[in-house]
């Protein structure tokens, strides 16, 4: 949100394949963004076109709806909350997909403008939470 292009660099719960995602955002209003999620693996690329809506009653929380590729008309929805950001180089998000089953696939992910490395603010936040970078899925360990 607010940053045009970011890369998913860390994920607490995985799967590691989602670390090959790039997020491109264009603002269409003050409360709604168009969001394109690109997942690249080798020569293959999957694109999800999404609408990201800011929840008016909760600062830093978004509802996201994405259309699945293939013109099936199927959509995936998830809630996203910003838990830490510098509003420039990184954001740490908690995401909760809305699934038809009762399986919860909540995750915490790090999005950065730099594809490689870890922003100092991210490292500082991890330290403050008692989290270790070594236990998280990392983009640098995945072949995208």
Automatic annotation (TrEMBL):
Belongs to the calycin superfamily. Triabin family. It is found in: Secreted. Its main location: secreted. One of its GO terms (biological process) is symbiont-mediated perturbation of host defenses. It comes from Triatoma rubida. Pfam families: Triabin (PF03973). The keyword Lipid biosynthesis does not apply. GO terms for cellular component: extracellular region. InterPro entries: Calycin, Triabi/Procalin. This is Lipocalin/cytosolic fatty-acid binding domain-containing protein. It comes from the Eukaryota. One of its GO terms (molecular function) is toxin activity.
């Amino acid at each position: 949100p607010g940053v045009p292009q970011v890369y998913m660099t860390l994920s607490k719960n995985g799967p590691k394949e989602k670390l090959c995602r790039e997020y491109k955002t264009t603002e269409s209003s003050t409360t709604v963004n168009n969001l394109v999620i690109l997942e690249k693996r080798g020569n293959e690329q999957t694109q999800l076109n999404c609408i990201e809506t800011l929840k008016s009653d909760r600062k830093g929380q978004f509802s996201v709806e994405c259309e699945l590729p293939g013109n099936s008309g199927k959509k995936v929805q998830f809630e996203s909350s910003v838990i830490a950001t510098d509003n420039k180089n990184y954001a740490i998000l908690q995401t909760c997909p809305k699934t038809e089953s009762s399986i919860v696939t909540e995750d915490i992910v790090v999005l950065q403008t730099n594809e490689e490395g870890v922003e100092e603010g991210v490292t500082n936040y991890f330290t403050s939470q008692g989290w270790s970078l070594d236990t998280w899925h990392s983009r640098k360990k995945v072949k995208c």
